[in-house]
Design brief:
Elements (H helix, E strand, L loop, with lengths): L2 E5 L2 E4 L4 E8 L7 E7 L6 E7 L5 E3 L7 E6 L4 E6 L8 E9 L12 E2 L3 E6 L1
Amino acid sequence: QVQLVESGGGSVQAGGSLRLSCAASGYTYSSNCMGWFRQAPGKEREGVAAIYTGGGSTYYADSVKGRFTISQDNAKNTVYLQMNSLKPEDTAMYFCAADGPVGSWRRWDEYNYWGQGTQVTVSS
């Protein structure tokens, strides 16, 4: 059974940093994407970043380019999201997802596995 467990969320002031982790168990990396999504109250779920586990290519939403970095540690079966220069508009529940399509990494409905989410709150 595949399980994704996120950690690392919390509350920070604007300009601060957080690193989210997504530990995967029962899941084997293959030619697909692992992604981070977020959802704020009253808003749609949006793709933040994704990484192609077969080769390491990364993808980012325009709103986080230059501030967030996604990476993977294959030995630990873990994907990270380093978030710097955080803004209040980054406040949301962040979800890790696995087994997503490379060609349309933003399509949250095409990912097969999801974590429970971790809250990120950025105050001004």
